[in-house]
Amino acid sequence: VNKHQKIYAGDSVCDYFLKKREEGKPYRVAMFAAYNKFLRIYHSRVSALLNETEA
After folding, report:
1. What is the mean pLDDT of the chain?
2. What pLDDT score does 11 carry?
3. Measuring CA to CA, how many Å separate 19 from each of 4, 15, 16, 23, 36?
4. What pLDDT, on a 0 to 100 scale, did the predictor assign at position 2?
5. Range 28-44 average pLDDT
6. Handedness of CA 9, 42, 44, 26 (dihedral sign)
7. What are the residues whose beta carbons fall under 8 Å from the beta carbon of 41, sequence distance 6 or more?
8. What is d(CA 41, CA 45) in angstroms, rounded to the nearest whole number?
């Protein structure tokens, strides 16, 4: 375990990236998968916030 893994412990995007790396995915493939996961989470949270303020 390196120092960065301790900082991001419990972060779902970081955990997803590490899971993909453990599956044997190349770094770039795992990183783009993590980017996509981050964007899905970000979009859902922003959409929920916008829907909340419109109501």
Report:
1. 89
2. 86
3. 15, 6, 5, 6, 14
4. 67
5. 97
6. negative
7. 12, 13
8. 6
Predicted TM-score (pTM) of the model is 0.76
Between CA 55 and CA 47 the distance in angstroms is 12
Token digits of residue 41: 């989470």
As a whole number of Å, the CA-based R_g of the chain is 14
pLDDT grade, residue 1 (50/70/90)?
A: low
**Which residue reads 């989470």 in tokens?**
41
Which residues, including other chains, have CB under 8 Å from residue 20's CB and lie 6 or more apart?
Answer: 29, 30, 33, 34
